Give the backbone structure.
Amino acid sequence: MIPPGCGIRLHVAASDLPAAPADPRRWHPHDLGVVQPLAPGARVALADGSEAVLLGVEGDTAHLWPADVDAAPEEGPEERPELVLDAPTGELAAHPLPRGTWVPARSELPNHPGLLGCAPEPDRTGLFVALIQRARCRSTRLVGRYLHVRATLYGTGRATPELAALRAWGTRFSYVREYLPELYHEHPQIDGSDEAGAPTSADFLERLVALFEGVLTPLEDAVADAWQWTDPATAPAEGLDWLAGWVGLTLDPALSEAARRRTIALAPVLARWRGTLRGLQLLLDVVTEGGSARGDVIVLEEWRLRRTWATILGADLTNDADPLLLGLTVDTNSIVGDTLVLGDEHHREFLALFGPGIDVTDADRDAVDQFFEASAHRITVLVHDGLPEAQRALVGKVVEEGAPAHVFATVRRTSRHFIAGISALLGVDTRLGTEPPPVTVRLGASRLGEGDRVGRPGALHPDVEGDP
């Protein structure tokens, strides 16, 4: 990102050793945006026609390193200070340097969304591409085992550029070297050498053909990676509806991009389990981006809510495998012996606990049948209030379309978390939420045992207990 008036200067150098070169002449600048003409590292022309590398500016005086000094790679201005030249900045003229060019693609990688997270803007935001080269050399190709890069950012005092990522591609696929005969190649004695002077004709041809490479190479890469258009994880966002049509899906416009991609990726699994409880849970988890796994959306089979409203004294009713008990009992009523019922005699659901061999009346049998029928083929989808409103609307659509045809489905909103034995069934609809912070007891609003706390021990008068 390069705001107006800002710029980035990239110095690159190559060496056969891991250590970066100390000789400033071996660092070659490349500019993006607006860079100070007399920035450190720039190659400038002196009044007598000779060239030098700018080391720094102090007031109106520029400190220079002679460009024609044959310094050893490990030697530089610090080791040979007697070679540093001083000249007035008004007498210096900066040579033009290689510049990066803005391209409309978000990334040079096919189908990559880019790393900036914003739309490209010409010459300001997005991808900039530059051919790595050495200015003022007969052979501009940079040769070496290690590539070293230094980045200098130039701002205006109110704005500054940002560098999200930097990639260097080497060895570059050269059309001249790959497709043309050796007649058009650079001479081996000149190729990659540090000989100063005007670029050769072969070097000019190399850079001229590189202009076409910059256009054709991304197209070739896109063709080579065309398989990514059929992968839900890498396909462009605007092509997801087209890709979904391949597997017979119609994506809801309200789905987020992540949910759309996951829906397509799980299409085989969703088709295999369509019309089942597992398929419905999986689809709800997809559209809510993990809400089912987190416990924000819970599919509850209502037969699990069957409970007897009586406790038979002397009988063990804590059978975890019994669908009427599940380890939980409600001791509202009691039965002593075979006939005494303490409580409402119309609650005859407890008869469902006994086998068919017991002697019951037709009314008792009808009560048991109604008890089972009231919760058969029914599901309740609990949606927690913490789920966004858009996703809550999607849950209703998914339940309406994805529930089995013979099942009655109901969607209910809930704000309750986990309260064992009261509002949660262990292993079925348990949801652990974040513990709310304690608040001070409020007169007329707080209830004992619901989290509100007294700030200090009670007293008849504050002075009795000292400072609050």
User: Anything to note?
Assistant: Residues 184 and 202 are 6 Å apart (CA to CA). The chain has nine helices and 16 strands.
